[in-house]
Amino acid sequence: MSVERVTFEVINAYVDGELDAADAAVVAQAMAEDAEVARQVAVLVQLKSAVAASAVPQRRRWPRQATAVAACVALLVLLGSLVTWALLPGPPPWLDAAWQRHNGWSAAGITAQARSTVLLANYENLLPGAYVPDLSAAGLTLVHTDRPSAGDAPLLVGYVGSRGCKVSLLVSLFESGPGEALADHVAGLKLAYAWRSDSLRYVILAEGMDGARFRLIAETVRHSSRQHRPADQETRVALKTSRAESRPCLA
Q1: Other C-beta atoms within 10 Å of 4: how many?
Q2: pLDDT (tens digit, 9 = 90+) per residue, 199-228?
Q3: 3-state secondary structure of 113
Q4: Is 175 helix (H, G, I), strand (E, B) or coil?
Q5: Which residues is 195 bridged to in the sheet?
Q6: Cα→Cα distances 153→7, 23, 43, 142, 197, Å
Q7: What dihedral angle (degrees, nearest 10) is formed by the CA atoms of 87, 93, 99, 101?
């Protein structure tokens, strides 16, 4: 087996000790980066331990019927968990597309595109009604805007920081997805929040940024997108303080 994606089958093989060292290392890395993978491994270990324990002879033997019932209950719990995992929805297509756009641009390749003041002045030509905030108070500089001409592709706005941070804000016409409240799509080091403002969907993404700092940035951008005005002085101070007290980005 050569693991490219950590599925339930891979997790099951990992718990059973059936993976080679290279594939087991892939699962271990996924556990370290994704809390959901770690949870699934822990639950499966507990369930398999419960099944195994029910089959171990005890000094005070249960009647055969009781032992059989215990084993059946443990098996039903295991099957219920398998069904639950199978029915859990994966990430929505628009979120996968947003991550592809985020991963598709590099700060090194576009920092000379234009000054941030020019980009801020021109972004609405790419998507009327969108609002793109200045995040300099958070230590982030706007360096990139892009909207493919084909179809209704989202407007991409790229920010970079001086400590390795890269943030993407994508704005598109709302078709489906989040409501007006901030929707959490955090998975390990991959941080994403989404919301709806009028007829537009906003998605903001970063990888490896301090979680509390990024949450504050997302809340600031959401508020600005709904009010169509910059953050107030109190929020700008909070953004500066959050940057000063957080670690540099890991990705």
Answers
A1: 9
A2: 899 999 999 999 999 999 999 999 999 999
A3: coil
A4: coil
A5: 202
A6: 30, 37, 40, 20, 17
A7: 170
8 A C-beta contact, residue 132 and residue 143: no
Predicted local confidence at residue 36, as pLDDT: 78
Distance CA 189, CA 206 (A): 8
Q: What are phi and psi of 185, to 5 degrees?
A: -130, 50
- Three state DSSP letters for 25-49: HHHHHHHHHCHHHHHHHHHHHHHHH
Q: Where are the domains of the chain?
A: 8-87, 93-245
Contact 142, 170 (CB under 8 A): no
pLDDT at 115: 54
pLDDT of residue 85: 45
Separation CA 193–CA 169 (nearest Å) = 10
**26: CB partners within 8 A, 6+ apart:** 3, 6
In sequence order, which residues have a C-beta less than 8 Å from that of residue 45 and are 6 or more positions away? 15
pTM of the model: 0.63
Distance CA 147, CA 151 (A): 10
- Burial call 36-63: b when 16+ CB within 10 Å, e when fewer: ebbebbebbeebeebbeebeeeeeeeee
CA-based nearest residue to 224, from 191, 184, 197, 194: 197
> CATH homologous superfamily of domain 93-245?
MucB/RseB, C-terminal domain (3.30.200.100)
Q: How far is CA 101 from CA 90, 133, 206, in A?
A: 19, 19, 12
Beta-sheet strands, E only, within the chain: 140-146, 155-161, 166-173, 183-184, 190-197, 200-207
